[in-house]
Fold these 2 entries.
Entry 1:
Amino acid sequence: MPRLTAATLDQANSGVATPPYDRAGLVTGIAHFGMGGFHRAHQALMIDELLRRGEAREWAITGIGVRPEDSRMRAALGEQDGLYTLIEKHADGAQDARVIGSILGMLTLADDGAEAVLELLSTPTTRIVSLTVTEGGYNINQSTGEFLIDAPDVVADLAEGAMPRTVFGLIVEALRRRREAGTTPFTVMSCDNLPDNGRVAHRSILAFAEAKDPELAAWIDAEVAFPNSMVDRITPATTDADRRSALELTGLEDAWPVVCETFFQWVLQDSFVNGRPPYELARVELVDDVEPYEMMKLRLLNSSHQGLCYFGYLLGYRFVADATSDPLISGLLRNYIGREAIPTLRPIGGVDPAEYGETCISRFRNPQVGDTVARLCAESSDRIPKWLLPVVFDLLAEGRSVDFSAAIVASWARYARGVDEQGEPIEVVDNRREQVMAAAAPSDDPLAFIRDPELFGDLAERPEFTEPYLYALTALNERGARALLTELAERA
Ligand SMILES: NC(=O)c1ccc[n+]([C@@H]2O[C@H](COP(=O)([O-])OP(=O)(O)OC[C@H]3O[C@@H](n4cnc5c(N)ncnc54)[C@H](O)[C@@H]3O)[C@@H](O)[C@H]2O)c1
Ligand SMILES: O=P(O)(O)OC[C@@H](O)[C@@H](O)[C@H](O)[C@H](O)CO
C-alpha cells in the first residue's frame, strides 16, 4: 500500500476526507510545543476545518519537540509531508477517517538544533505559540505553584551564553529577539489540562524571564497574552491496531495516525496580542472567562478519570470502557460527581453540570475509543494535585464531607504500592515513581503516602480528610477494592 504523502493523497479510498485546499503557500502562524496525539486530534483539526472553509491560510502549524523522543514524530510527519489520519470513533462502531493538512512539519532540538527553533519562533509570521507539554511540563511546585528555578534543565538554560533547551528558555529567548527587532510578540496559548492554564504558563515563563533578564520580563508581562482554555477530547495513545485501521480506512499507510472519540470541546479566552485564527468559524467557544468551564471539566471529567483508573486497575480492568461499565465504579463516579465535585463549581449559564457529568460517564463507556486504564494511571503525581485535591480543599473549607474524594486518593495510594490484589506487580509510571512508591509501601505510619506537603499540602494534618482516607485505605488493604466500593455505595 502506498504511504500517505502529498503525492499519494488522490489514491485515498473514496469517502475519506482529504484536504480539499491547496497546501502550497500555507504559512506557519502557530508554532506548537508537544506534538502528541491530543494536539493533532484537537487544535490541528480546528485549523484544518478553517482551511477547508478557505480561511486561516496564514495560521498553519509547525511543531516543536524539545525531547529526544520527539525525533520519531518529526520523522513520521516529515515523511508524510505533515499529513496524518485522524479517526473519530463513534460508540456504535462507526469510524470517520480524514486526512489533516494543517501541520506543515516539525522541528526538534535533536535534529534541527535550537537556532532553527528560535528562528521559527522569532519570525514575524509566527503569531501564536501553543503548548500541550503535559501537566508536568510547566515545572511548578504542585502545592505552591512556584516555578522550580533550581530544576537542572532550567539552571542549564539560565547559564550565561547557554543555547536554550527548555520550552521556557526557547520562548523567552525568542521574545527577546522579537523585542530587539521591533517585532510584535506572539501569544502563548496553553492547551494543557491545568486549572488556569494560561496563568500557569504566564507565571512559569515570567519566572524564567525574571531570572534571565528582569527588564525583558517586565516587557513580556506587559506585551504578551496568555489566554486560558478548556480543552476536551479523549485521545488515547496510538497503537499498531490503529495503524492497521488507518490503512484499511484510507488505503494509505500512516506511520502515526490519531484515534479519538467524537466529542469535541474547546472553550478559549479571547485574549491574543498578534491576531488569531477565526476560531469562531470552527467549533471553538470564545469567552472572556474560561475558569468555570475549566473547573467543571477538570473536577468532573479529569478527576473522574482518576476515580476510575486505580479502582479499575485493582479490579482487573485494563480498558476505561470496561472499568466504567462496572456499576460499582460508575456508582463511585456518580457519587463523587454529584455529592462532592458539583457543589464546588461556579455556575455556567445554560450548562447543567449533572448532565455534563453523565455525558462524561457515557463517553468513558465508549468501547471503540480503546482508552486504557494505564494511560490514566500514569503521572498521577502531576494530575491528582491539580484536578482532585482542589475539590477536597474547597469541600473542607465549607465543612463538607470528602468520603468519595478521599477514597479516590486512597485508591491511588493502594495502586502505588506496585502490587495488585492478586500479588502481581503493577508497572507504576510516574516522574516521582521512587518517592511515591516508597511513601505507599506498608509502614508503621498509615498516613505516610499523604505526608508530602508538595503534593498534598496539609491534608495529613486534617482529621476531616484523614478519617475517611484511613477508612478507605484500610478497607482496600484488608478487604479489597470491590468490598470498599460496595461499602461506599451502601453508605451513600
Ligand atoms: N490525550 C488526551 O485525551 C488529552 C485531552 C485533553 C488535553 N490533553 C492535554 O494534552 C497533553 C498531551 O497529551 P497527549 O495525549 O498529546 O500526550 P502525548 O504523550 O501524545 O504527547 C505529549 C507531548 O508533550 C511533549 N512533552 C512532554 N513533557 C514535556 C516537557 N516537559 N517539555 C516539553 N514537551 C514535553 C512530548 O514530547 C510529546 O510531544 C496532556 O498532558 C493534557 O494536558 C490531552
Ligand atoms: O492527558 P492528561 O495528562 O491530561 O490526562 C489523562 C486524561 O485524563 C486526559 O487526557 C483526558 O483524556 C482528557 O482530558 C479528555 O479531554
Entry 2:
Amino acid sequence: MTTLIKGARVLGGDPADLLLEDGRIAAVGGRLSVTGATVVDADGLVALPGLVDLHTHLREPGREDAETVETGSRAAALGGFTAVHAMANTDPVADTAGVVEQVWRLGRQAGLVDVVPVGAVTVGLRGERLAELGAMADSAARVRVFSDDGHCVADPALMRRALEYVKAFDGVVAQHAEEPRLTAGAQMNEGDLSARLGLTGWPAAAEEAVIARDVLLAEHVGARLHVCHVSTAGSVEILRWAKSRGVQVTAEVTPHHLLLTESCAESYDPVFKVNPPLRTDADVQALRAGLADGTIDAVATDHAPHAVEDKESEWAQARPGMLGLEQALSVVVQALVEPGLLDWAGVADRMAVRPAAIGRLDGHGRPLTPGEPANLLLLDPAARSVVDPAALASRSRNSPYAGRELPGRVVATFLRGEATVLDGKALR
Ligand SMILES: NC(=O)N[C@@H](CC(=O)O)C(=O)O
Ligand SMILES: [Zn+2]
Ligand SMILES: [Zn+2]
C-alpha cells in the first residue's frame, strides 16, 4: 500500500509531498512522484500527527446502546485521532487483565484507531482497595494509565499507594479531581448563576483541593500524576506552582471547557450538564492561557456518550457528560488557533505529542518525517460547518455543539499508512 499526499502544509509550513509506504512515512519533499501510488490531493490542507486522546468513554462492555468500541473508534478517526485511551468506567469495570484485553481486542478488530485501555485504580471504582494494576500493566493491553474516572480516588492513603504502585512500570494515575463531600447533589458550577437557577453548586474548591493534595502526594512519593479535565483558573495556578517545584504532574483540559461557560445552563438543557461543570468566562480564559503556555499539557475530549433516556430528562436526573471526539480539533481551532494562542505546531504538541508521551505510547505523536509511522491527519482549516448531531458517527447524540458553526474539517486520517478517513468519510 503506497499513498502519495500532494502539497500538504506539514504543521502549517510550506506545501510538501508525503509518501506513505509500508505503514511509514517513506519520504517528505517537493514534487515527489511514484508510479502505482494512490494520490491524495492535499492542496491547502494542513498535515498534523494523528491526534491522541487521553480520555474517551467507549461504553463497551455494558452500554453498547450508547457507544461501542467500533462506533467510538469511527467517531475518533473522523475527528483526526489515531489513538484513544478508553476509560475504565464500563460494566464490568475495566479492573482486571481480562477486561482490558477484551477492550484492546475489540479496538484491533475495529481497526480505525489504536484503542488503549485505561485500567481502574480500585476494584469496581469503589475506592476501597487497589485493582490488579500490575496484571493489567503486564497484559496484552500493556496498560500504563490508571483511572477511576467518573469517581475520585478520594481516600488519600489509597491514592498514595496507587501512585507508589504504578511507579514500578512507569505508569501514571489519572485523577478525576472531585472532593465528593463538597459535591453531594451538585448540578452545575457554584456561583451567582447556580443560586439564580436553583441548581445545587459544584464549587471550584472541590476540584482544586484534590489537585493540591495529589500534587503533594506525587511529590512526596516521586510518582507520575495526571489530572483529568481541569476546569478552573485556580487549578491552573496550582498546576503552575507544582510544575515550578518539579512535581511530575501533567494535566488535560477538554474542548468544552475551552469554549463553553456555565451560562449554557440557563437553557436547562441537560446536554450541557457535565462533570466537572462548565465554569465562568474567567475560567475559560485561564484554561486557554494555561494550555497555551504549557501548564496544561494536553487537550483530552472526555467524549461521554449517553443514551437518549439518560440525557433527555429533567436537568437534575440527566447523566453528566457530552460528546467530543468529532469536534475536538475544530473547537481547538476556534478557541486557540484563530485567536493566535496556539500555532499548528502547538496544536500537534497538545493534541498528539504530549498525550502520547503521557500514555507512553510508541508510534504516536511522532514528527512527520521519513522513517516515522504514518499516523497523521489532513485538515482543511478554511472549511466551516454547522454541527448536526444526527450526522455524527457516535451512537449517541449528546453534542453540546448542535447548531453551532465551527471552523476546520478533517479531510483524511491515516493509521500506519492506511486511510481510515478520506474526503471526510470513514472508510470502515
Ligand atoms: N464527564 C462526565 O460528565 N461524565 C463521564 C465521567 C467523567 O468523566 O467524570 C461519563 O462517563 O459519562
Ligand atoms: Zn471525570
Ligand atoms: Zn471521563
